C-alpha cells in the first residue's frame, strides 16, 4: 500500500487547516510543509513556517516534514525535512544525521549519490507536471515503466523511494508499477475545487490492487 505524501498548497487559503486535518483523519500519511514567500520562486521565511505550525493541531506535528534543512526541522520541532539532494552531498553537520531527512531528487543522477543515513528520497518528476520548472523533463518521457523500475530497484532496496511529479488519480496505477513506498502529490489535490473529494478518490486509487 502506497503512503500518501501531500505538499501544502503553496499559498495560504481559508479553511486550509481544516481540510488538512480532515485528510489526516482519512488516511493522509505525511505532510510536506512548503510555502511560497515574496516572488514566485522564493520560499517562505522561518517565521512564516513557525506561525503556520502553531496553527496546526499538535497531534499532527509528528507527520510533518518541512522543505528545508534538518536545522529548520529541528527548529520547528517537526518530524523531519525534505532537503535538496545537492545540499546533502559531501560533508554535512553531524547534527543533521539525527534528523529524519528525505532527499529531494530532480534527476536519477542525484538519486545515485545519496548518503546512507537518509530516511528516504523523493524522486521525480515521474510524469509531466505544471508544477515542475521544466515539465518536458520527466522520468517516463523516454523510458518505459519497466526500464525505470529496473533502474530504481537497486536504490529502493537501500532506501524508501517516494515518487513525485504529475501523479494523480488517473496515473496512480502506473506509479504503482515502480518500486515506490509512497507518492507525493500537490496539484493532484489542490488543483480541484473540492480538495477533500479529490483526496478521497486519490487514496482509493492508491489503495486499489493493480
Task: Give the topology, please.
Elements: E1 3-7, H1 16-25, E2 30-33, H2 46-55, E3 64-67, H3 70-76, E4 80-84, E5 100-105, H4 108-111, E6 120-123, H5 145-156, E7 161-164, H6 172-175, E8 182-185, H7 187-190, H8 195-207
Parallel strand pairs: 1-2, 1-8, 2-3, 3-4, 4-5, 5-6, 6-7, 7-8
Describe this structure in words.
By secondary structure, the chain is α/β, with parallel strands linked by helices. It has one domain: Aldolase class I (TIM Barrel). The chain has 8 helices and 8 strands. The protein has helices spanning 16-25, 46-55, 70-76, 108-111, 145-156, 172-175, 187-190, 195-207, and strands spanning 3-7, 30-33, 64-67, 80-84, 100-105, 120-123, 161-164, 182-185. An 8-stranded parallel β-barrel has the order 1-2-3-4-5-6-7-8. The longest helix is centred in the C-terminal third of the chain and has 13 residues, at 195-207. The radius of gyration is 16 Å and the shape is globular. The mean pLDDT is 92.
**Which regions contain 5 or more consecutive residues with pLDDT less than 50?**
none
What integer is the average pLDDT? 92
Q: Share of helix among residues? A: 25-40%
Please list the strands of the largest sheet in the order they lie side by side: 1-2-3-4-5-6-7-8
CATH superfamily: Aldolase class I
CATH class placement: Alpha Beta
User: What count of domains describes the coordinates?
Assistant: 1
Query: Could you give the order of the helices and strands?
Result: EHEHEHEEHEHEHEHH
At the fold tier of CATH, the topology name is TIM Barrel
Mass-distribution shape: globular
Termini distance?
11 Å
Count of helix runs = 8
Category by helix and strand content: alpha/beta
Oligomer: single chain
Tell me the Rg in angstroms: 16 Å
Please tally the β strands and state the result. Answer: 8
CATH architecture field:
Alpha-Beta Barrel
| Major sheet size, sense and barrel closure | 8 strands, parallel, barrel
**Percentage of residues in strands:** 15-25%
Amino acid at each position: 500500500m502506497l503512503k500518501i505524501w501531500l505538499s501544502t498548497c503553496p499559498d495560504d487559503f481559508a479553511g486550509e487547516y481544516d481540510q488538512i486535518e480532515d485528510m489526516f483523519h482519512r488516511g493522509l500519511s505525511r505532510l510536506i510543509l512548503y510555502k511560497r514567500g515574496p516572488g514566485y520562486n522564493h520560499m517562505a521565511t522561518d517565521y512564516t513556517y513557525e506561525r503556520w505550525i502553531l496553527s496546526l493541531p499538535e497531534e499532527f506535528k509528528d507527520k510533518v516534514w518541512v522543505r528545508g534543512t534538518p536545522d529548520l526541522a529541528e527548529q520547528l520541532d517537526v518530524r523531519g525535512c525534505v532537503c535538496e539532494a545537492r545540499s546533502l552531498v559531501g560533508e554535512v553537520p553531524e547534527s543533521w544525521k539525527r534528523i529524519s531527512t528525505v532527499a529531494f531528487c530532480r534527476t536519477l543522477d542525484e538519486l545515485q549519490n545519496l548518503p546512507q543515513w537518509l530516511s528516504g528520497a523523493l524522486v521525480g518528476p515521474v510524469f509531466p507536471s505544471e508544477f515542475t520548472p521544466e515539465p518536458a523533463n520527466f522520468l517516463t518521457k523516454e523510458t518505459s515503466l519497466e526500464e525505470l523500475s529496473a533502474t530504481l530497484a537497486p536504490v529502493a532496496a537501500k532506501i524508501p523511494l517516494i515518487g513525485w511529479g504529475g501523479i494523480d488519480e488517473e496515473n496512480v496505477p502506473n506509479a504503482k508499477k515502480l518500486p515506490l513506498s509512497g507518492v507525493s502529490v500537490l496539484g493532484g489535490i489542490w488543483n480541484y475545487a473540492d480538495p477533500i473529494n479529490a483526496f478521497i478518490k486519490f487514496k482509493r486509487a492508491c489503495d486499489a490492487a493493480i
